[in-house]
Amino acid sequence: VSAHRLPCPNGVAQRLHIAGTLSQSAMANLDQLSVATFNAFLSKSEGRDKLARFVQYFARTVVGLAGMKALKKGTALHKLNEQATNIMKQLAGARRTHRWCKEFPVIKGIVQDLPMHMSSPKDPWVFLDRVLDLLQKCTLASFLVIDHVGWLKQVKVLSGGKRAGTGTIQLGLKFFCASNLVGALLQLKKLRDAAAKEQDGEPSRGERARCARNALKHALLVLQTAHLSRLRETHDALVGAAGMATSAMDVLSQWPERKAAASASPDAKALAKPGGRAAAALAR
């Protein structure tokens, strides 16, 4: 999607600040940045995907900011815009290729939870939770399947018109937008329930912060997918900044956790030796 000549909203930095504030609690148990930690992070396929997604949306931000000015061929800004566009498209295609079979766990979860969803609970709020959860999973699975069809059209395996692949992918993104909208509603309800539990004196162990972070992530994804699917176009700079924020959240979720430090204890063999107990006592 090309950049639009709309003024970039002033709330981009504020959105990133809110996302960063909510992510601070999640960073408490993460390991420090090092070559070994970064290598462990890259050993996960999801980690590589989310890092590539961050770069992809950074490139979209550059495209959006560059598009706010008149681009003249031969200028440095025009060249930067072309380079960022190519990076964005190539990373999007690569990530779409590696998205195959991700629908299997979602479909498996739908099949496993379907008997529970079919039962009618007495509590209407529980029934609403089940319906929303099922709707979120179904729309997510639909997005993944339609996205595969769009990819097959792009590589000419399936026939279609000139923009058949792009149009199919945009259709799938509409389902992904709906999935994130439902996910945001679910997280807001969980946030409300967590607040009620805290008022009743029940410990939540950061449940409110986690629900707020997930709700913000889903809301930002709704903004992104509405733009990418052309359901509601805004601005590439805004969408790029939102994509960087959600990608940073995903990177943190894949980052290796800090290992618990082993408690120092005196060696049993040393204690068995003469004078070992006295040395251990002095060490204390």
Structure, described:
The protein is mostly helical and 284 residues long. It has one domain (41-254). The chain contains eleven helices and no strands. It has helices at 12-23, 35-42, 45-66, 76-97, 103-118, 124-154, 164-199, 207-228, 236-254, 268-272, 276-283. The model is unreliable at 1-9, 262-266, 268-272 and 276-284 (pLDDT under 50). InterPro entries: PEX11. It is found in: Peroxisome membrane. Residues 263-284 are annotated as: Disordered.
How would you describe the shape?
Answer: globular
Beta fraction of the residues?
A: under 5%
For the record, the count of structural domains works out to 1
Sheet/helix structural class: mainly alpha
Tally the helices: what do you get? 11
Estimate the helix proportion, in percent.
over 70%
Main sheet: strands, sense, barrel = none
Q: Using only CA atoms, what is the Rg?
A: 24 Å
Q: Report the strand count.
A: 0
N- and C-termini, Cα separation? 66 Å
Task: Spell out the key features of this protein.
single chain, 284 residues, mainly alpha, 71% helix, 0% strand, globular, disordered N terminus, disordered C terminus
Outline of this structure?
With 284 residues, this protein is mainly α. The protein has helices spanning 12-23, 35-42, 45-66, 76-97, 103-118, 124-154, 164-199, 207-228, 236-254, 268-272, 276-283.
Question: Topology of this protein?
Answer:
Elements (H helix, E strand, L loop, with lengths): L11 H12 L11 H8 L2 H22 L9 H22 L5 H16 L5 H31 L9 H36 L7 H22 L7 H19 L13 H5 L3 H8 L1
Helix pairs in contact: 1-9, 3-4, 3-9, 5-6, 6-7, 7-8, 8-9
